[in-house]
Amino acid sequence: MNVNLVAAVNPSGPGASGVRNYVFTLARELTSRGVDVMVIGHGPNAAKYDAFDFVSVTERIGNASEFILALALFLKRTHRLQGLVHANRPDDLVPFHLESPQVPAVLTLHGVHAVHIRAKRGPIPAAAYRLAERYSLVRARAILCVSPDTLAHFRELYPFLEDRFRMVPSGVDMDFFRIRSRAEARAMFKFPEEHKVVAFVGRFEPEKNPVHVAEEFLALNKQHSDARLVMVGAGSLTEDIRRLAASNPGRIHVLPPMDQEKLAWLFSAADVLVVASYHEGLPTVALEGLACGTPIVGTPVGILPQVVKSGVNGFLTDGPLQLAPLLDRALYEVDWVKEACRNSVRQFGWDRIVPAILEVYSEIWE
Fold first, then answer.
1. Which domains does the chain carry?
2. Using alpha carbons only, what angle is made at residue 219 by residues 218 and 221, rounded to the nearest 5 degrees?
3. In three state form, how does the secondary structure of the chain look?
4. How far from chain centre, in Å, is Cα 344?
5. How far apart are CA 262 and CA 257, in angstroms?
């Protein structure tokens, strides 16, 4: 079986987004099971992987539309693609449906992307995206949803596609994201042992709500001077975040996106990981943090209500985004058990997720 994994991912980029982690980890896992895999993304074509092939359709992209155009040109040059296609955004499948309609297509829905497009770009681009979404979904042979909320949303929109939907969450590399030495992790980031460290990891974009996280932390910090916030990411709100950090020296630390190795150590150095998204399919970073034994404080988005058990592996807000009181409890009242946090996400290990994906491939390949 040949599988072409498609996503606007750049292996040479500075950080590891949820979709990027999903694509490259899935590629490695599939290859280890004897599947021939090619990842189709963007960036320098010099990127090499021992396990699978990587093909760049363009060195640079400014937006999603440019990636779709580059995909279309790539397919015209390729003429006939071998194997099945597994994409991670509906609009990325459009060129394949047009140029290679005979190729079986699988789509993973990582959330309700139209919501983000409407919030960022307005109703007209969101409507155009919805047209592309519908065009792709009705032509895809299988549609994987990473969370119950995502599945429910698309079932309601497309009830006539009921037999194509599957609930298959993103996976977590449980060997990589594991409980590590807190002392070593703190030494790596130069965090004093006496400090209570809150970590935020994600894009600095409105839907991730990083400014509110910083404001809620500062409210907590008025009561607890030993608390520190580490924010890892980049995006349109970077300058806002940096201004808040500059106005509160020593209390908020802003770091650029980091690779998975460093991220795993950061989770082990932190006392709490905060997730405050307005909308999310499956917040992979939360599962990775839990796999490292770090409790979560956040909003009830995506699959988190099914994963986070109050007082066992974290706290979730109900109603307004009042994070400060929950951070206070998480940092100063609960003696968390790292193994309990880790055990709560064992069901998302790739050893359980990949067989479910392979089963879908087999269904549509026959």
1. 2-171+349-365 (3.40.50.2000), 182-347 (3.40.50.2000)
2. 60
3. CEEEEECCCCCCCCCCCHHHHHHHHHHHHHHHCCCEEEEEECCCCCCCCCCCEEEECCCCCCCHHHHHHHHHHHHHHHCCCCCEEEECCHHHHHHHHHHCCCCCEEEEECCCHHHHHHHHHCHHHHHHHHHHHHHHHCCCCEEEECCHHHHHHHHHHCHHHHHHEEECCCCECCCCCCCCCHHHHHHHHCCCCCCEEEEEECCCCHHHCHHHHHHHHHHHHCCCCCEEEEEECCCCCHHHHHHHHHHCCCCEEEECCCCHHHHHHHHHHCCEEEECCCCCCCCHHHHHHHHCCCCEEECCCCCHHHHCCECCCEEECCCCCCHHHHHHHHHHCCCCCHHHHHHCCHHHEHHHHHHHHHHHHHHHHC
4. 18
5. 10
CA torsion 345→348→351→356, rounded to 10°?
150
Token pair listed for 8: 């606007």
| Cβ-based neighbours of 123, under 8 Å, separated by 6 or more | none
Q: How many CA atoms lie within 13 A of 10 on its CB side?
A: 13
User: Could you report the per-residue pLDDT of 202-246, keeping only the tens digit for each?
Assistant: 999 988 999 999 999 999 999 999 999 999 999 999 999 999 999
pLDDT for residue 86? 98
Predicted confidence at residue 81, as pLDDT, reads 81
The percentage of the chain sitting over the pLDDT mark of 90, rounded to a whole number, equals: 74
Tokens of 314: 């974290």
CA distance 198 to 329: 12
The pLDDT score that the predictor gives to residue 274 is 97
pLDDT tens per residue, range 136-154: 999 999 999 998 889 999 9
Rounded to a whole number of angstroms, the CA Rg of the chain reads 21
Sheet strands side by side (includes 105-109): 53-56, 36-41, 2-6, 84-87, 105-109, 142-145, 165-167
Show Cβ contacts of residue 2 under 8 Å, excluding neighbours closer than 6 positions: 35, 36, 37, 38, 82, 83, 84
Question: In the prediction, which pLDDT does 18 show?
Answer: 79
